[in-house]
Amino acid sequence: MNVYYDRAQKAHAPKHFLVSGAPQPSPEKPERADAMLSGAVNAGLTPVVPPDAGLGPIAAVHTPEYITFLSTIYERWQRIDGASAEVVPNIHPDRRDGAYPKSAVGQAGYHMADTACPISADSWPAIRRSADAAVAAAQAVLAETESNAAPKAYALCRPPGHHAFADMAGGFCFVNNSAVAAGVLRSRYDRVAILDVDLHHGNGTQGVFYARPDVLTVSIHADPVRFYPFFWGHADERGSGAGLGYNYNLPIPRGTADADYMPTLDAALARIAAFAPGALVVALGLDSRADDPFGGLSLTPDGYGAVGRAIAQLGLPTTIVQEGGYLSDDLGPTLTSFLQGIA
Ligand code: ZN
Questions:
Q1: What's the order of all strands across the beta sheet hosting 2-4?
Q2: 98 C-alpha to center of ligand 1: Å?
Q3: CB neighbours of 146 closer than 8 A, spacing ≥ 6?
Q4: Rounded to the nearest 5°, which phi and psi values hold at 333?
Q5: CA-CA to 316 of 20 to 30 Å: which in 70, 112, 215, 240?
Q6: Residue 98 has pLDDT above 90, yes or no
Q7: Is 57 helix (H, G, I), strand (E, B) or coil?
Q8: Taking the chain, what is the end-to-end CA distance rounded to the nearest angstrom?
Q9: What residues pack around ion ligand 1 (CB closer than 5 A)?
Q10: 100 DSSP assignment
Q11: Ligand 1 centre and the CA of 292: distance in Å?
């Protein structure tokens, strides 16, 4: 199995972050990538630098005005007298069906769900390379299906993506790399499933595919009743229109550990098997582990290995896309355990 990653992804180094209103260092640090690359190599994966995929796969998921925003907002922001070093919103629309704002400040509020995704001069190139990793991993899976019924590839995406909607950043995420990978897989398969095992609900991924029956979105996460992202991730969010029934949320109690996690995973896998997708995307958050700084769930590295083995039982071509998971001793070893399990 290959790990797709480019060191240029480390250039994005967000500073601004608030916890319950208080300024804190952002946990989405560039050094996360080093720990996860080591974890992948220790699992026997081969590092590959992804080619430039261009904007096409991103434009298949995100709106033109949002892509223009991501690629130009930093320079426009710097022309404002007294503006902050990073683009951070300070006003949000009450509804998103009104006029599109012309000003940089208005657009920052329109295109950012929260203040956890500041944009600096180095952000957009790093975001692009993170998406390139997802595209390369999905393409590698497609290329291998001739010789292997269930090929797998791992995209070390950083910054992550699953909180990014079609036209809105949020929660450290800008381009939804899991959705981008699903789009690439859809070029071959009529039905693709996304299984999100990040600690936090994959609200952006849900939003991208909410009205579509061709991409099943399944997320296991800490109950959002008192946890980010609060407004999404509840069990009664099932899709809309033609997509009704193709979004499956499995909120679980804070502190859930390995043994109690597995029945929920089994339910998720049964739903995916019944959908009979041609391929799978695993939105791999490593922040459900016990020693993650967010402290929401209590999986062990061995538990992640069991999760990987269970997912492999689906026997599907699988693109693994890195989502959350923050610095502590177990970050790399947890990735190693998951990758060994799914391989
Ligand atoms: Zn997360």
A1: 46-48, 2-4, 152-155, 318-322, 279-284, 192-196, 215-222, 247-252
A2: 31
A3: none
A4: -60, -30
A5: 240
A6: no
A7: helix
A8: 8
A9: 198-200, 285, 287, 324
A10: P
A11: 10
- Catalytic site positions: 163
β-bridge partners, 87 = 119
Residue 176, both tokens: 């939804």
Rg over CA atoms, the chain: 18
3-state secondary structure of 252: strand
- In the prediction, which pLDDT does 51 show? 98
Question: How far apart (Å, rounded) are the C-alpha atoms in residues 199 and 271?
Answer: 20
Q: Is 112 helix (H, G, I), strand (E, B) or coil?
A: strand
| Alpha-carbon torsion, ordered 14, 96, 183, 324, to 10 deg | 30
| Contact status, residue 196 vs residue 219, Cβ threshold 8 Å | yes
Fold adopted by 2-62+124-342: Arginase; Chain A (3.40.800)
Does the structure show a pLDDT above 90 at 97? no
pLDDT, mean of residues 272-288: 98
Q: What is the pTM of this model?
A: 0.98
pLDDT at 318: 98
**Look-up of token digits 């909607």:** 165
pLDDT value of position 96: 86
Do residues 301 and 291 touch, judged by C-beta distance below 8 A?
Answer: no
Mean pLDDT of 266-281: 98
Per-residue model confidence (pLDDT) at position 316? 98
Distance 222 CA to ligand 1 centre (A): 10
What residue ranges do the domains of the chain occupy? 2-62+124-342
Helix (H) or strand (E) holding 248: strand 247-252
What does the pLDDT look like over 39-69, one tens digit per residue? Answer: 999 999 999 999 999 999 999 999 999 999 9
CA 340 / ligand 1 centre spacing (Å)? 22
The total number of residues written for the chain in this structure: 343
CA of 78 to the centre of ligand 1 (A): 30
Q: What is the mean pLDDT of the chain?
A: 97
How close is the Cα of 69 to the center of ligand 1, in Å?
A: 24
pLDDT digits (tens, 9 = 90+) for 193-244: 999 999 999 999 999 999 999 999 999 999 999 999 999 999 999 999 999 9
Provide mean pLDDT across the span 258-287: 98
